[in-house]
Amino acid sequence: MSINSYFVNGKRFGWGPGSASLNPEKAHLLKNYSQSKCLDIGFGSGIYTEYLRNLGHEVVGIDNEKRFVQLATKKYPEIEFVAGNALKLPFKKRQFDTAIAFDILEHVDDEAALEELFRVAKRVIFSVPLKNEKVLLRYGLSHAHYLDRTHRRAYSLKVIRQLINKKKSKTIYLEKSLPLSISGLLIEQLSGKNLFLEYLLKIILKPFLPEPPIFSTIFGVIER
């Protein structure tokens, strides 16, 4: 992936330096399941690396983009950030208790990445994009993560379970997360960011649109 792709995607999808904000559900996952010495892989803005440190953990951040390393080091000088690849981590065997891989596995060879994560840590906390559900396609909608052409794949719970079993790891936590409103997505699409039209559509359409649970992400915590 080019440097430009990292920065464009970081800004476009809200995870890069200057645009990222702490997601409460990801923060909750880290608070409940991160242990002792942590490695934050593909840290992007460094916001979760800092959060882990604030939880009292010893933490190191690693990212393939050297400019992210420079920016995070400047913003969070008390944290160690290094440049490196998720498929070839520059760390010793079981150097960490927890490896965090938010939105990483869909970009790489996920089997090889998990093998490398388990080489350096006994526990892995991850998030991956969820496949479109049929109800979304019925309304001509799709998850925003399909716009990111650097994604190799999206996942279902079945596929993730197969991957976990293949890596002979134990599932601590595995759930769909980050729920979306299908009526909200449709209204946003139809209104074209016209606030007055969006307001009218909410009044007219929302009572007639179904609201099944629609999720965009899978969160997991696994051990080996």
TrEMBL record:
Gene3D superfamilies per UniProt: Vaccinia Virus protein VP39 (3.40.50.150)
InterPro entries recorded: Methyltransf_11 (IPR013216), SAM-dependent_MTases_sf (IPR029063)
GO biological process terms held by the UniProt record: methylation
PANTHER family named in the record: METHYLTRANSFERASE TYPE 11, TRANS-ACONITATE 2-METHYLTRANSFERASE-RELATED
Keywords annotated in UniProt: Methyltransferase, Transferase
Domain of life: Bacteria
Protein name: Methyltransferase type 11
